[in-house]
Amino acid sequence: MNIQLICPLCGRDLKRNDPTWYCEGNHSFDIARQGYVNLLPVQNKKSLHPGDTKEMLAARRIFLNQGHYLPIEESVIRAIQQYCQKETPVLADIGCGEGYYTVSFEKACHAECVGIDIAKDGVRMACARSRTVTWLVATASRLPLKDSSVDCVTAMFSLFLPQEYARILRQGGCVIEVTAGEDHLRELKSIIYEEVFEQHKHLPNCGSELTEAECREYRFPLTLSDSELQTLLMMTPHFWRIKKERREALSAVSQLTVTVHYRVRVMKKK
Question: What is the tally of helices (H) and strands (E) in the chain?
């Protein structure tokens, strides 16, 4: 295995000896029966259950399995294949959630993948998608991956941490970041909110060790039934923000075409 893990407590190399990972600092981490490893120390948790809720993750699994975001998946795969031209790249999917995109990248790009998320429920669900991906519960701000050990980092609608991504990337490695555009799901927002404010989203700076190679903008229409709209709402933070009457207004909609608007930015390590 080419994925090189480090201890989240002392930073030493982790070695695998089933059913545990261990380091020379006498720290060990059990492999759960589902197949993941929890490398999130209690002191790095900001809440009892960090990350997305079980309900959000389950809704996301249903929605993504239905293929609604297949164009997003395909655009990222094209970017990986263009900018990470290795026979078997080591790919870290940060904020992997329930693993849909991670497994897609593993198959399409013949990658050796590690999927990382702070939500234990998401990583547990992801294990059912693949037994060959290395699934980790960890924080993106302190990735348990060795310096210069990864060929490609993907961040699908998740945090962008340029210094930490640059640390784990090999020279010439790439980060592929997907972010929502200003018009993303605008039609849905117009129903669930009394007023939709204009947003001017600016991508964060690449940092000193990464340089932008490409940034492409994509849009496509997506027609959803009433049940699909409810699933889409449940998988987003909007579900927890809207008023009861707005949720009821959406329930009265039998079909809606929404705009999917997103950007794919590629950055290379200098």
Answer: 9, 11
What is the distance between the alpha carbons of residues 35 and 128, in angstroms, rounded to a whole number? Answer: 9
pLDDT tens for 204-244 read 889 889 999 999 999 999 999 999 999 999 999 888 888 88
User: What's the rounded Cα separation, in Å, for the pair 126 and 161?
Assistant: 23
The secondary structure of 72-128, three-state, reads HHHHHHHHHHHHCCCCCCEEEEECCCCCHHHHHHHHHCCCEEEEEECCHHHHHHHCC
3-state SS class at 246: helix
Q: Give me the half-sphere count of Cα atoms (radius 13 Å) on the Cβ side of residue 46.
A: 6
DSSP state of 248: H
Q: Measured between alpha carbons, how far is residue 72 from residues 6, 56, 238 in Å?
A: 31, 19, 21
265 alpha carbon, distance to own chain's centre: 14
Q: Using the structure block, give the residue that is written with the tokens 């809207």.
A: 242
- For residues 226 and 251, the answer to whether their CB atoms sit within 8 Å is yes
Cβ neighbours around 204 below 10 Å, total:
12
Stretch 110-125: mean pLDDT, rounded? 97
Q: What is the pLDDT of residues 82-98, one digit of tens each?
A: 999 899 999 999 999 99
Question: Tokens 């900018």 identify what position?
Answer: 83
Task: Please state the rounded mean pLDDT for residues 29-50.
Answer: 83
Helix, strand and coil content of the chain, in percent to the nearest 5, comes to 30, 30, 40
Residue 56 Rama label (left phi>0; alpha psi -120 to 50; beta)? alpha
Residue 5: closest CA among 145, 192, 167? 145
Percent pLDDT > 90 in the chain is: 83
Q: What size, in residues, is the chain?
A: 270
